[in-house]
Amino acid sequence: MLELNHIKKIYHDGDIEVKALNDVSLTIARGEMVAIMGPSGSGKSTFMNVLGCLDQPTSGSYRLNGQEVAERTQRELATIRNRELGFVFQSFNLLPKLTALQNVELPLVYAGVPAQRRAEMAQQALDRVDLAHRVRHRPKELSGGQQQRVAIARALVNNPRLILADEPTGNLDSHSSVEVMALFQELHRSGITVVLVTHEPDIAEYTQRVIRFRDGQVVADEVIRPKRAEK
Ligand code: ADP
Ligand code: ADP
């Protein structure tokens, strides 16, 4: 599903060249659940931005579902991001003035889905994260764990095949973190590919494969037996 070959991403900081990704080649198959680990500055965010078609590599090939991303137009990439990918962030990124339901509807607004259909789809996505009873609440009326579940519902509402999550438990207490990981495991069981960045070994244990970055390179890639997250 994700195929990267000799990916480099070079930033220029004045005269200094920063190799944020330095020859990364790897494949992530449909239905995998993967943790990306590595020290600060090792290239994790750059890697996720490339996977999410938010940033183009300097060189190398990235094929998403068999298609070379560099050959897509900006407009096609925007559609891929909206329809095929779901993004989850450490800081939830919910709009404070909107209700949970309205936040979840946003990707459908951009996709041009009619209002009634949007509300139905958002309601279904909130059901899926066990928040059917919180649809009228605004973010500040919800706990951190609940806010992250709203953000996951928003990532799910377009039925993406791939969820990309950057430190999704970074702002959560350990109980809410395990709940969020239980939810990702459920999505994974339903066939969604999940790639998440974490620097917490306890969180990586809930995935099936751990890829470690250092200085823009993959230094370890191991398949593990996932621990089951209990809600
Ligand atoms: P991580 O997410 O593992 O902390 P990053 O992908 O953010 O690592 O960064 C990898 C390297 O690329 C770091 O040395 C960082 O300073 C550099 N870098 C990231 N983004 C930029 C940018 N926009 N301009 C210049 N250097 C950058
Ligand atoms: P129909 O009335 O033909 O069954 P829907 O009510 O499901 O269609 O959808 C109405 C519009 O919303 C269509 O233009 C469709 O392309 C769009 N749409 C439906 N589902 C999605 C989705 N998951 N993501 C983006 N757009 C969608």
Automatic annotation (TrEMBL):
PROSITE patterns reported in the protein's UniProt record: ABC_TRANSPORTER_1 (PS00211), ABC_TRANSPORTER_2 (PS50893)
Domain ABC transporter: 2-231
GO cellular component, one term: plasma membrane
Keyword Transport attached: yes
Domain of life where this protein originates: Bacteria
CDD domains: ABC_MJ0796_LolCDE_FtsE
Protein name in the entry: Putative ABC transport system ATP-binding protein
Species per Swiss-Prot/TrEMBL record: Hydrogenispora ethanolica
